[in-house]
Amino acid sequence: MAKLAERTQKIAGSPTQAVTALVDRLRRSGVEVIDFGAGEPDFPTVAGAKAAAHKAIDANFSKYTPNAGAADLKRAILDRYRADYGVEYSEAEVIVTAGGKQALNNTALALFGPGDEVITHAPYWPTIPEQVKLADATPVIAETRADDGFAIRAAGILEKVTPRTRGIVVNSPCNPTGAMISEADFETIAKVAARENIWLVVDLCYEKLIYDPVPHNLPAIVARTCRDVTVLCGSASKTYAMTGWRCGWALGPAPVISACNSMQSNSTSNASSITQKAVVEALNGSQEPVRAMLAEYRERRDRLHEWLTADPRIKCHKPGGAFYMFVDVSQAVEAAGLKTTTAFAEALLEDQKVAVTPGEAFGAPGFLRISYATSMENLREGSRRMLEFVKARAASAAAGVR
Ligand SMILES: Cc1ncc(COP(=O)(O)O)c(C=O)c1O
């Protein structure tokens, strides 16, 4: 066979999607699995969006739209950001994409290239460093600390800045930790970005899933500090339970959006026309369903935390946002006589049919990501099985059975 392109050697497939594929395979072969791997809401898409999609189909809204998005959707995004954050962007400063992932990828390709260093924080959503590599740039990782609740700190990020730094990617609330950046830390980074001409990319995919009323108006800080060097990436996926519909967006300086538009026009073109109509309704309609989902996630978070920490070998903070518990199982892994969290996750799936994503996927060995985008019943039963697993494996390791 002829050789594949060089870039394919640098890129790993998504490890979170690998867990989803494994669960799917097991289920199809008849095995009942409790899935804590899901990176998506278990709720149905908000009703208004579904109705708007039906209407769009019936009205034959099935042609290409402008590549950067239909005018009414662009307006709805701009209106939402004005209402939520008090910021003003123009139509030339927004592009609609097939998911937040494409918004981030367009942005990485538009801004980064060979020789550039791009800083992001770990534990990270694996796509962020992979996209940097796809752009032929080098990811530079700033570790956050478990004993600090994985808070994203300016100091940790800024100490990685070198003359080669071309960009900083901040994801808040963060997947997989649920941690956030404080406005003060963000402002410190924003000022450095503006002064040093470093691109700042902000992944706001979980912006509507914040549990406590902590100030998190990052767009307003961008507006007053570093607008010319910043791209905000957002998504309908998690907020409106629309992962399969594929709709995201990027807001930033017109030349960056224009470059994204050129790349997108030669790759995927516009996001699905039907999806766009659905998202107009999701953004313009009542935000009550979003609040209802958040309340349910909060309840699940609190119960899950209580259930898991009943075993002192399992340690975790309650996340401030998103819908993941990032759990320190290093003691449990050791007690079980296992070498890695990946081995732990595999054994958990084998023994107790519970799927979790091992921390290695996020650059954080010793941890597991547990998604609580699943029913309370599953959370209760899955936690029970996890604790049972930890106990049984530790007992047999102590007895020298395995
Ligand atoms: C941190 C983060 N950013 C962006 C995305 C992109 O989501 P989507 O492409 O579905 O909008 C995800 C999805 O899991 C995510 O976890």
Primary descriptors:
about 400 residues, alpha/beta, 7-stranded mixed sheet, 4-stranded antiparallel sheet, 14 helices, binds pyridoxal-5'-phosphate
What does this structure look like?
This protein is α/β, with parallel strands linked by helices. The protein has helices spanning 15-28, 47-58, 71-85, 100-111, 127-134, 154-158, 183-196, 218-225, 254-265, 273-284, 288-308, 330-335, 341-352, 376-398, and strands at 34-35, 94-97, 117-122, 138-143, 165-171, 199-203, 230-235, 248-251, 315-316, 324-328, 354-355, 357-358, 367-371. It is globular, with a radius of gyration of 21 Å. The model has no long low-confidence stretch (mean pLDDT 95). Pyridoxal-5'-phosphate binds next to helix 4.
